[in-house]
Hints:
The protein contains 14 helices and 18 strands. By secondary structure, it is of the alpha/beta class.
Amino acid sequence: MSTPISDVLIIGGGVAGLTLALEVADHRSVTLVRPAQDDQGASRWAQGGIAAVLSPDDDLDAHINDTLVAGDGLCDIEAVRFTVTHGPAAIQWLIDKGVPFTPEHDPAARYPYHLTREGGHNARRIIHADDATGRAVVDTLVDKVAQHPNITQRNDLTVVGLLQDPQGACRGAYGSDTNQQWHSLTARHTVLATGGASGLYRHTTTPAPSSGEGMMMAAELGARLMNLEFQQFHPTCLFDPEGPAFLISEAVRGEGGHLLNEAGERFMLALDKRAELAPRDVVARAIDAEIQRNSLGHVWLDIRHLGGKSIRHHFPTILAHCACRGIDITQQAIPVVPAAHYSCGGVATNLHGATNVANLYAIGETACTGLHGANRMASNSLLECLVFARSCAQALLADVAQQGQTTSGSEFQPPVQAAAAVLPKAVLRGIRQQMRTTMSQHVSIVRSATGLSTALAHLKSLLNSVEEIQGALTAPEGKRLHQTLQLAILTVLAAQHRHESRGLHYSTDWPSRQPEAVASSLAMKDLTDALATNR
């Protein structure tokens, strides 16, 4: 089944996708594909806030410098400057949309909203809505999108691939509905806002994380993928093996939380002068080392010294959630462990979200703009979503070359049209779990050449297993698992090619940095070549 052609097709309904939809819908027809349940994306679970230069006591160069330091030499300075410079206007756009940011009650403050500080930042520049910023932003934007007459929402489809014309340009996407029927969504411009790849790992900070499917959709059309080896692990995810994932915000440490080892001693003081406010890669490795040395399986994050009143004021969501899990954080330290949180790599784009494939754009976590380099600084993620969604909107609105085209959507059909097969779901779940275990064991916070080789061999075997299941690649769940395994293999290849330790990529075989920072770049040909070996 084919839909009428849209001006803009947006796949993904987090902050990036919602912002883009609202920015172009007054002038272009928009189809927005997003999950029926708002809690599936990572945006809604973002707690800490959004970094931007808002106080008169802060300045753009300071934010730029902090970002460059955290990125460990691999940031694209143009992308950093572009993002930081456009940050204040993006925040004002949210305020104008009605996002209920937490007000500042101190009469001496020089900015009307409360600003907190997080790791890597040398100033208070994180605007937030209590400790549930993502939820506040998503809820506000979802309401605006629902009211806009020029935005058609589709929450009944699972998109699994992109449409391409004979000239190689992207012409939309295809996917399956809940009845296993295929649909094609044709569009003049297609924008991926599908999230990152934290779902490649066993422990994550999001209950239903993306596994990089959007990145592989772009790669299948010829888009370049960049810096896949830089997967950020948030230092402090609630340790509860029996319960769902839950992030303990960086802001908890920003407000004075202490990390304690099994003996109840602070261990960050001896490792970094910034202590608990060191960048995330430093803190995550330190926690991982403590866990390996001891038997608890976690460390402690202690904020009892802040007092109950302050805790209830700053962290009501975390307080309530921990309470429902049997932890009173006003009286007890919080057990925490690092968990996969954010993909610094993704589909390579320019400052307007454009990829190297005509008519295909990527924004948000699925994109690699160069802003984060080898390590994302806290709260720069939602900032990137906003700035690049608004920049992408400007590019799409300025592109009048394709307006008035009457190309029929029926000319671009999905490559698979057969009825989706009924697959052994338990087998697919088992393969996915094996992949996550392999990635967590060998391709996470600390890596080695031996471990990466072991991971590559196992991931190839798992990919073969999927391909041997009859009908797997003509069913949504099989196709998406196949894409996920392909991205996992590309991530291992990127890690193998980087003969150094930099930012989030730490190798025991290459503990030092190379004198020159070079971004990694991979494409489908690299995957094909790797799979041809020993196959």
